[in-house]
Amino acid sequence: MSHKVAPSVLSADFANLQRDVEMINNSAADWFHVDIMDGHFVPNISFGFPVVKAIKKWATKPLDVHLMITDPDRYLKDFKDAGADHITVHLEACVHLHRTIQAIKALGCLAGVAINPHTPVALLADIVADIDLVIIMSVNPGFGGQAFIEHTYKKVAELKALADEYNPDMIIEIDGGVTLDNAAKLVAAGATSLIAGNFVFNAEDQVGTIAALKKVTG
Ligand SMILES: O=C(CO)[C@H](O)[C@H](O)COP(=O)(O)O
Ligand SMILES: [Fe+2]
């Protein structure tokens, strides 16, 4: 089965948000990647519930919500109500990760865990069987447009080995600095979903760029 592509709305033109959402609707993209930053877990603030609701109103594809926030348990239901289909929390932001995952599932969302570049894949060993997706951060979270960290390939391969053993259907998503220079190698290593912000929205042909990301083979 081919990998998913999830353009990151963080890099959209917020003065033309409906236009950019419709561009994604009319492209080969599978999901909308929606980055929530609280200025505490990460050194940047993105947007909150009203913007997620606006995206949901126009979007015809699922919302893949990436919570870069401290204490995400407080807001899970609000994000579900705003339109989230997948909710991913950071391992580094959760004291009781297993409980948080159960709470996301109880809301009827796909449950994901994101790990920062410095966080070992091995820390996911006892949660992999319980989750629907993992986001491997290939940049330090907080900003779009950063350079891809090469060490990510090794982490993808390690996570694929864990998934093969405990949860073969688990989605392996890569977030940060994804371009056509690294997409094929990521898919070859085991990535099953590619998130891309700047690479899509800075392109002259955005729909064509999404199609090209979708077409890469490992
Ligand atoms: O979570 C994120 C940043 O924390 C974004 O999803 C990610 O950076 C995508 O943007 P780009 O493709 O431009 O790196
Ligand atoms: Fe993200």
From TrEMBL:
Pfam families the record matches: Ribul_P_3_epim
Binding-site residues, substrate: S8, H66, G142, F143, G144, G145, D175, G176, G177
Keyword Manganese: yes
GO molecular function, one term: metal ion binding
Cofactor: Mn(2+); Fe(2+); Zn(2+); Co(2+)
Entry binding sites for a divalent metal cation: H33, D35, H66, D175
SUPFAM superfamilies the UniProt entry points to: Ribulose-phoshate binding barrel
BP terms from Gene Ontology: pentose catabolic process; pentose-phosphate shunt
Keywords: Carbohydrate metabolism, Cobalt, Isomerase, Manganese, Metal-binding, Zinc
EC number: 5.1.3.1
Source superkingdom: Bacteria
Matching PROSITE patterns: RIBUL_P_3_EPIMER_1, RIBUL_P_3_EPIMER_2
Catalysed reactions listed for this entry: D-ribulose 5-phosphate = D-xylulose 5-phosphate
Top EC group: isomerase
Cofactor detail note: Binds 1 divalent metal cation per subunit.
UniProt xrefs under InterPro entries: Aldolase_TIM, Ribul_P_3_epim, Ribul_P_3_epim-like, RibuloseP-bd_barrel
Keyword Metal-binding among UniProt keywords: yes
Family as reported in the entry's similarity comment: Belongs to the ribulose-phosphate 3-epimerase family.
PANTHER family to which the protein is assigned, alphabetical: RIBULOSE-5-PHOSPHATE-3-EPIMERASE
Entry-linked HAMAP family: RPE
Role of this protein: Catalyzes the reversible epimerization of D-ribulose 5-phosphate to D-xylulose 5-phosphate.
Protein name in the entry: Ribulose-phosphate 3-epimerase
Organism, as annotated: Mucilaginibacter myungsuensis
Gene label: rpe
